[in-house]
Amino acid sequence: MINAFSPFYDSPPNDVELEYLNVLREHHNNFFNFTLKIINDFNFSSAIEIGSYLTNVAVRLKPHLQSMTATDVETGNSRENYRKWANKFGVKVGINSITSNGIRILSKEDNCRYDIFLASEILEHLPFNPLPIIKSIKHYLNDDGVVVVSVPNRLSLAKIVRFILGRHPYIKFNEFSSEDYILANYGHHWLEYNVRDLDYVFEICGFKRIALKTVNINYKKKLSFVAKQIIRLITLGLVFDQIYAAYRRSND
User: Fold this and answer.
1) Is the Cβ–Cβ distance between 34 and 148 less than 8 Å?
2) Could you read off the pLDDT of 199-244 as tens digits, one per residue?
3) What DSSP designation does 181 have?
4) Is 234 strand, coil or helix?
5) Which domains does the chain have, with CATH numbers?
6) Are 242 and 214 in contact, with CB atoms under 8 Å apart?
7) Which pTM value belongs to this model?
8) N or C, which end of the chain has less CB nearby within 10 Å?
9) How far is the CA of 60 from the CAs of 27, 43, 91, 114, in angstroms?
């Protein structure tokens, strides 16, 4: 379920994956609505997305764009069935590579540029310095393009509680020895961000923030959601779950 609703599998999403998406429905709605406002405000017509749950957002955004490309990491599978399924919605499926040197789109779209670059729940999974990765996004953006990201807030209530209990806020150390984690280049959260962190890494890479949304998410647990809302009020809005931010290219 970690790879739910992404072209890691050469087939459309199954029932288990769709149920996982249902749990994350509110988060995906927030990302979709946040991105759609940027598209409408700037009259954008093309977009590319990398990574997590990409087809969910891409399929929903396609009716609002002339061109929508969704990419994920290479898996060795042909993905032909998945590609045909996504194409039914007008979404092109490609492959990307993310290394310490940055992002590359490994397909015929390699040299294309887009109005908007989407990365939902990606940055926290990368075991690299984020600066080369963020800088490389410019290669795929038009001069007035925008990058939209969502990341979990490292100052959320759950992480504060884990820290107080003496645990790592977002890395489960007992999982390091599993084969999936040993062999994978990314998967768990290596580095999470707060708003100030996110602004810093994007500004140093030549972007300026144009929009921001911070929320608590109701993951079908009403009591914990109410508790989080109360904590956010007490902390004057400093403690919350999720960050959605949009950054526009600065003058190079």
Assistant:
1) yes
2) 999 999 999 999 999 999 988 788 888 989 999 999 989 999 999 9
3) H
4) helix
5) 15-249 (3.40.50.150)
6) yes
7) 0.89
8) C
9) 14, 17, 10, 18
